[in-house]
Structures are given as structure tokens and as C-alpha cells.
Automatic annotation (TrEMBL):
UniProt biased composition (Acidic residues): 242-277
Domain of life (superkingdom): Eukaryota
Residue ranges constituting the Tsg C-terminal domain according to the UniProt record: 94-222
Source organism per UniProt: Pinctada imbricata
Ranges where the record places region Disordered: 229-277
Claim: Secreted is one of the keywords in the record: yes
InterPro entries reported for this sequence: Tsg (IPR006761), Tsg_C (IPR057726), Tsg_N (IPR057635)
Subcellular location as annotated: Secreted
A GO cellular component entry from the record: extracellular space
Pfam families: Tsg (PF04668), Tsg_N (PF23782)
Protein name in the entry: Twisted gastrulation
Tsg N-terminal domain ranges (all copies): 31-89
Alphabetized UniProt keyword annotations: Developmental protein, Glycoprotein, Secreted, Signal
GO biological process, alphabetically ordered: regulation of BMP signaling pathway
Amino acid sequence: SFWRKMRLFSVLPLYYVGIVTLFCVLHTVESCNESVCASIVSKCMLIKACNCDMADIKNCACCKDCQKCLSKLYTECCSCIGLCKVPNAEENLLNTSSVEDLTDPLPDLFNVLTEEPDFEERWVSFSYPYHQDALIFKPDHGMLDLSSGSRDIDRLDDVTDPEQNCTVAFMSQCLSLRKCKVACQSMGAARYRWFHDHGCCQCIGSTCISYGKNSPHCLKCPDPDDQDDLNDDNLNNAVNDLPEDNDNDDDDNDNDLDDDDDDDDDILDDDKIDDVV
């Protein structure tokens, strides 16, 4: 029993060191979910599966063992020990979007509608060289592909003239995803891109190999932070534009009714006087 106690006392310092290390690690990373990661991170630190310098991932001696130790909680907890970047909680969805290839596009119709500015400003068109489109083509650039299958290779084969321009059209008003698809189909577009935060709709011509521009350019579709802004002046103007209170009208109507009743009473009194006479 003596030696058992001695072994216990020899382990306790390591245990406390591990707890202190875990406490420091979890509190230096603000986005670390302590309730989820505390137990697994403590275990991985104690068995020294994640106890190495992770500043240089290429030469990280324990990264493989660490990710195995974190197991199913790797995504949630890797930032707690510096194995991955800390998620940016303030990162917005400005450039995230949904895309889809449309069936039976009408290139001639799309070209006719976009070759000149729309006189009603229902949309605004942009054209840029095909080779630029090829250089900026990023299939995984914050996009959710709604198509049933990928046609990137076919799209490359369809373009025969490398000097052709890629033409896209941004609808001026914010649209829902369904209305965006319908609008682009009606223009003869080959595909569309719908930006999540804005509701900005981009229709893309058949000569483009990518899904158009990576940022929204809708004329009358404001930024998400500006959509709900209503300053005091606008609020006062809105209130002033409202019709006058109906209660006043009701009071006036009640007064008119009272006056009519008084007139009727006067008429009745005159009739009674005539009868008496």
C-alpha cells in the first residue's frame, strides 16, 4: 500500500500540470467550446498526442497523432490546441452563393437582351474576356451547386473561340432563389448564381466557363446591414405621410350625429306645440 500511495503521489503532479495546461489552452482560444472539447483535449494533452509545436504544419511531428486522438471532435476542437485556424465568428456570408446550370439555354436571346443597357434598368450587364474567366474559375468559391451533375468539362468544350467575352447580367432588384432561376431562364441564360445574404441574382451566359462574378453587383439590392436601417428622419417622414387619425374623424361623426339628434328634437318640439295650438 505504501508503494501504491507513492505511485499515486508521483502521478498527481502530472495530472495537475495537465489540468493547468488544459485550462490555459482553452482560455487562450476564445472560440473554443469548452463544454464539448475540455474532456477530449485534456485526454490528448495528457497522453502527449497533441504535445508538440504546431506552428509549422509541414514539420509537425504530432499532427497526425493529434487528429487521430481528437477523432470525431476534430472539427470542433482542433482550434483549441492550435492545430487549425480559429473560426472567425464575425465572418459574414457576403460572397457565399448557390449556383445551378439551366437546361435548354437560349444564347441568342441572352445576347440580344444583354448587348445594350436595359432602358428600364431591370438588369445591368457585364462583359469581360473569356481568358479572365478561365483564370478566376474557382469551383469551390463559397458556392452551393444545385445542379444534378457537374458539367465543367463539357462547359470548357462548348467554348470554341478563346477571344469570346463572358457576359453576365445582374438583376436590379433583390429576388428569391426561385424567382432568380425563373428570371434567368426567361432571359435564356445558361446558369445562374444567387447570393445568400443579398438575394442578388446573377444570370450567366453560355460563353462563360465559371459561375460569373464572385461578388454581387445588383443596382437596387442593398447590403444586408443597410436593408433594415431606418433613421429617425425617415421614420418621422413615414409617420407624417400616414393619414390622420381615424379617431378624430369618428369624433367629428359623433358630433354630427348629436347635432342631427338635436335638430330632430327641435322639430318634434315644434310639432307638439302645433298640436297643442
